[in-house]
Amino acid sequence: MNAIETRGLRYQAGRGFEIHDLDLHVPSGSIYGFLGPNGSGKTTVMRLVLGLLRPLAGRIDVLGRSMPAAAPEVLARVGYVPEQPHLDPTLTLRETLRFQAAFYPSWDWACAEQLLDQFGLDDGKPFGRLSKGQKGKLMMLLALAQRPDLFVLDEPTEGLDPVVRRDMLSALLNYVAHRGATILISSHLVHELERICDWIGIMDDGRLLTELPIDRLKSGIKRLRVSGAPPNVAAPPFALLAREPAEDGIESWLVRDWEPAMQSYFDGVRATLRDVIDLDLEEGFVELLRTFRPPGS
User: CA 126 to CA 236: how far, in whole Å?
Assistant: First the structure.
């Protein structure tokens, strides 16, 4: 079962941007990393999932219910951390907690108090006087104290120092480990997602380029060095994403869905496989964007 599923989702913002027939699947209990450059549509998709925007077409199911029709019931079970905090700057942290608690029957005051202490937050300080790191911690505290089944986190650690990021993610992962909750998280910190995620979805220009388990993405995308390559590559057992000349007659091939047994393919086309080079998540992400984009874009 998927905690989030969209089918044929379409949305348009003016003339310049459109979500194209998006089919997204976030498995229940997964930590799903949402990757993409600025303007790719990640935040828009998250807002559509939460019912904050209305789609032109398609279907959105969240926690087994249709959105936005079931928004009140669904949002009571969702912890949302937006990219830009949206809280009243004049309220103290204690007042902010009381305000937030009033909307969530599942609110856990013991959790909130424990996180106030763990994060080193002063509950008498107005929100508007907090540092960026303190605001980030408070937003995560609010989401965690709701005891949600699903977290939707839009760049929750953007611009924060490593210590603050570690504290926030540690608290989040500890909750997920005990509760079995689902996380949809977007971030520009690819190496951070690589450490915590088990699924990855990659967006660009309003399209979902791929989504798959992170282990499969990392193990299946390779750079091959090939000599004696034929002019035309016929029916390879892998997906050939790009081929470029390197040096001394050796080509560099970027492939997807690679498995070691596929080396025998090159004997059949009278080519020589010189090297198989592993790519980390960031390299694979960049290469996928490059190969899916039109030349010159």
Answer: 61
Count of residues for the chain?
297
Q: Could you tell me the CA-to-CA distances from 219 to 74, 255, 280 in Å, in that order?
A: 36, 11, 9
Vertex 100: Cα angle to 60 and 34 (nearest 5): 35
Whether residue 113 contacts residue 41, with contact meaning beta carbons closer than 8 Å, is answered with no
Q: Are 141 and 175 in contact (CB under 8 A)?
A: no
> Among residues of the chain, what percentage have pLDDT more than 90?
60
Give the pLDDT score at 90: 96
Helices (DSSP H) in the chain: which residue ranges?
A: 42-49, 71-75, 93-101, 109-118, 132-145, 162-179, 190-196, 214-220, 264-268, 281-292
Amino acid at 217: L
Q: How far apart are CA 65 and CA 4, in angstroms?
A: 9
What's phi and psi for 86, nearest 5 deg? Answer: -130, 30
* Cβ count within 10 A of residue 190: 17
Residue 294 confidence (pLDDT): 61
Q: Which pLDDT band, with edges at 50, 70 and 90, does 293 fall under?
A: low
Instruction: Flag whether pLDDT at 296 surpasses 70.
Output: no
